[in-house]
Specification:
heterodimer; A: mainly alpha; 5 helices; globular; B: 151 residues; mainly alpha; 0% strand
Chain lengths: 62, 151
Amino acid sequence: MHDLTQENLAQVIGVNRQTILAIEKGKYVPSLDLAFRIARHFGVSLEEVFIYEDEEQAGRVQ
Amino acid sequence: MKKNTFYLIVGCIAIALVGLFWYSDVIRMPLLIEAGFIVAVAAIYLIRRRVTDLVEDERDVKITEQAVLRTMQVFWVVFCAFSIGAVMQLLRPPPIPRGFTMAPPPILPELLSPRLIGFVQLGLLCLMIFLYVGFRIYYAGIYGGWEKDEE
């Protein structure tokens, strides 16, 4: 998407590359502020980048 | 300022502190190393603000928060237990009355002499540092610190 590396995205958003990696892996849930910044960077809405899953749903999927 | 320059300066400050510790021992003036330590830490904080390539984002802050919280939860219990014991040693509270006998109160062995308190405090400080580093590694792992890059 947008031919971006994690490093580039991290620099643009103002976070560490590890943070982008952790968000991609689902290990870290970003704050609303960071989530909006990421969505705004790609020019899409929040729901197109992030999906909310509560713990029950996540457990059922697994 | 680059990150590596900052670490170099911190190393130099640490070496200077060791020298100051030695000198304050030679002239028998502990206040010198105490003041030097405070100044050194303040200097490190000030210099750190000038580092340009050190990005501390919200994930770092969260890891730090969690590590500090857990460290303090363990540390205050250990520190309080030690401090209560140390105060007991220093104040030497009178023994509980044991009837009307004239026998002298039993002399309990001194577990912690006042001279040792400084060493034990240093030991507790080391414990706190190890706890903090351990918790940082643990929470960095939880929040995806050790994931491998797919790029």
